[in-house]
Amino acid sequence: MLFSSSGSTGVPRVFRYTHFDRKFWEQANARALYSGGLRKGDSAFPMVGFGPHVFAWGVQYTLATMGLPVIPGGGMDGKARASIIERFDPTVLVCTPSYALYLGRVMQEKGQDPARTSVRWITTGGEPFSGVEGTLERIQDLWGAKSLEFYGCTEASPHCGGYSCPEYQAGDEPFIHLMEDIQVWETVDPVTMQPVPENERGLTVCTNLNSESSPQLRFLVGDYTRLSAEPCACGRNHLRAMGCMTGRADDLVNLRGIKFFPVQIEEAVRAVPGTGDEFQIRLSTMDDGLDVMTVAVEHTDPTVAAAIAKEVRSRCEIRCEVEVLPPNTLPKTEMKAKRVRDMRGKA
Ligand SMILES: [Zn+2]
Question: At the fourth CATH level, which superfamily is domain 252-343?
Answer without folding.
Answer: ANL, C-terminal domain (3.30.300.30)
